[in-house]
Design brief:
mainly alpha
Length: about 120
């Protein structure tokens, strides 16, 4: 049973068109942030712990950056008007996506901890 699930997930990532896959991977963290904002406002009166907010933002950045990891692995990336690019251009595009969002996630956490230590 577990092997079937693993194969279906692998097939999903290998067979899905790269534009749709990137959209799914990028839109999911945005939806998580929207839901977190609603939960925070409704149940926590907008007073969610700052550390929890930073962890959620960093995790969402890691998820968005993972789209770049898939682009590097598959050596193809979405481009304008539904077209796709492949080869070195796709690897560079994926590396930029990965570096920007993973870097921002790390910076968010570093600045939070520096702020709490310094003040």
């Amino acid at each position: 049973m577990n092997n079937k699930i693993k194969l279906s997930v692998k097939n999903f990532f290998e067979k899905t068109e790269i534009g749709k896959l990137t959209l799914i991977i990028s839109a999911t963290p945005i939806l998580i942030l929207i839901v977190w904002g609603i939960i925070s406002e409704q149940f926590l009166d907008g007073e969610a712990p700052q550390l929890l907010n930073m962890i959620i933002f960093a995790a969402c950045g890691l998820l968005i950056g993972s789209a770049g990891l898939i682009q590097i692995r598959r050596q193809e990336a979405p481009w304008l008007m539904g077209k796709k690019i492949s080869g070195v251009k796709a690897i560079i595009s994926g590396a930029l996506l990965l570096g920007i969002f993973w870097g921002l996630s790390v910076l968010i956490l570093i600045f939070y901890f520096l702020e709490t230590i310094a003040f």
